[in-house]
């Protein structure tokens, strides 16, 4: 058994035994919040491969933990920013789970930074105690003037509108590496999506074995067999894409596109196999479809990921534009 296999088993067992444990307890008991944080700041000093394992297990259970925005995006943004003072100030609290953070990437809000004052509105931001924002080539920490929580389709991933009205900021690092931070976030999200898709497949197979029609399990019908076989191929292919992105963020756009659509398909097919019960409020199938749908809007939709890939697959003229 590899180290990542052992980590996966530990996280899965913990989530099964303590599904309602608060984030600080999860961070303390497993060290998951500080997984990617250097040891000198109280973390474990691990990399994207270990982060992907935890993200996948959280995706299987539709966990509401702020792992993606706090333990991945915020941590990676601070590390990439290289500001020792900011890391010393923020990373220990993020590592032990006593604080959470969220990151506003370029283009996610209309923000301007002038004379150390941040102004603008971020329409949708994941929840986090500390707000880190990229503005004018810098990473800054700022306290919003106003937070408005949105009612969301996926209640396990709350979003809020953040408003800044000439707010004094604290430097948190250089902002030049924001695209790498985004890609590390996309890779972690892809792992989470694979975890959710995997669980959808498992639920569909379990139901197909137990549900009887015309005197035999519905899983014995050819149409259902083909549906589940196609779904297995889709999930395994998505797993390969997510693993590639965890090994190198250069594959993030591939994983972002493929894993997003794979999760949407798996969640939808799970409901189809379950039939009428799959659309009831009491069954968890609808919750996976909601998570898959909301995940499809994080960072950017699959089409935007493919547009990023087009520049590499179809290189254009010297100006860098993609071939039509």
From TrEMBL:
Q: Which Enzyme Commission number(s) are listed?
A: 1.-.-.-
Pfam families given in the database record: Acyl-CoA_dh_1, Acyl-CoA_dh_N
Question: Domain named Acyl-CoA dehydrogenase/oxidase C-terminal: which ranges?
Answer: 188-295
InterPro entries hit by this protein: AcylCo_DH/oxidase_C, AcylCoA_DH/ox_N
Q: What GO MF annotations does this protein's record show?
A: oxidoreductase activity
Q: Where is the Acyl-CoA dehydrogenase/oxidase N-terminal domain?
A: 19-97
Which keywords does this Swiss-Prot/TrEMBL entry list? FAD, Flavoprotein, Oxidoreductase
The name under which this protein is listed is Acyl-CoA dehydrogenase family protein
């Amino acid at each position: 058994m590899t180290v990542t296999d052992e980590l996966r088993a530990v996280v899965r067992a913990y989530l099964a035994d303590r599904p309602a444990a608060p984030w600080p307890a999860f961070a303390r008991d497993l060290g998951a919040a500080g997984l990617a944080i250097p040891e000198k700041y109280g973390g474990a000093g691990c990399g994207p491969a270990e982060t992907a394992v935890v993200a996948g297990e959280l995706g299987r259970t539709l966990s509401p933990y702020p792992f993606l925005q706090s333990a991945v995006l915020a941590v990676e943004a601070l590390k990439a920013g290289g500001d020792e003072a900011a890391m010393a100030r923020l990373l220990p609290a993020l590592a032990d789970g006593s604080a959470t953070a969220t990151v506003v990437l370029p283009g996610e809000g209309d923000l301007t930074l002038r004379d150390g004052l941040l102004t603008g509105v971020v329409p949708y931001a994941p929840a986090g105690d500390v707000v880190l924002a990229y503005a004018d080539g810098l990473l800054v920490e700022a306290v919003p003037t106003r937070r408005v929580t949105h009612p969301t389709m996926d209640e396990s991933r709350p979003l809020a509108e953040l408003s800044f009205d000439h707010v004094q900021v604290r430097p948190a690092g250089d902002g030049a590496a924001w695209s790498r931070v985004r890609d590390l976030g996309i890779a972690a999200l892809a792992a989470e999506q694979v975890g959710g898709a995997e669980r959808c497949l498992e639920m569909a197979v379990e139901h197909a074995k137990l549900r009887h029609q015309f005197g035999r399990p519905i899983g014995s019908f050819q149409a259902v067999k083909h549906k589940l076989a196609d779904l297995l191929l889709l999930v395994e292919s998505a797993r390969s894409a997510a693993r590639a992105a965890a090994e190198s963020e250069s594959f993030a756009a591939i994983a972002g596109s493929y894993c997003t659509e794979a999760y949407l398909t798996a969640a939808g097919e799970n409901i189809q196999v379950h039939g009428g019960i799959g659309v009831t409020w009491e069954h968890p199938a609808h919750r996976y479809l909601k998570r898959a749908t909301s995940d499809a809007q994080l960072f950017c939709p699959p089409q935007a990921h493919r547009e990023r890939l087009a520049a590499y697959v179809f290189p254009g003229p010297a100006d860098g534009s993609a071939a039509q």
